[in-house]
Amino acid sequence: EVEKIQIKITSLGLTESRITADETIQQLFVECRLNNFLAEETPLSLPKPPGGQRIHYNYSTVINVDKENNHAEREYLKSILLKPDLPANSLKFTVVSDPPEDEQDLECEDIGFAYVSLKEIFQKQRDIIEQDIDVFDSQDASAVIGKLTVTVEALNALRSVHEECKHD
Q1: For 7, which of 35, 49, 56, 65 is 20 to 30 Å away at the CA?
Q2: What digits encode the pLDDT tens for the residues 65-80?
Q3: Architecture field, domain 4-166
């Protein structure tokens, strides 16, 4: 039962930016990606919140990393723990603008990115519980456009993977 990573996307708040000013950006959903294996997204897109307010997704998902069925994910977790030069941002959250029903010619557009380092969770030996993480502008990685509140419970799975590394 420890062989999983539990992820929850609780809410999103935006600061005043090009995003809040852009009238074509109306509905937002959030995608969560583990490297290139797995992408999960909130089933709902919600109306873009005014600056200073939040929209609540309360979306939970589980990434299974057991040996039997999820070998690739597990090997990736091993590589995060063992390779110091691997980029640390192993979980990537993308805030995506969902075009309105009547504007189907518009594409979904990535407007911001937020990151959680599984390596850091392991180093600190602490899961991330209902924590605000910065959302960076997709067009300017130095600009923070908002905060995403997330939970990432990965420590037990990472410990299990780490134990296995020691035996390999």
Answers
A1: 49
A2: 888 888 888 888 998 8
A3: Sandwich (2.60)
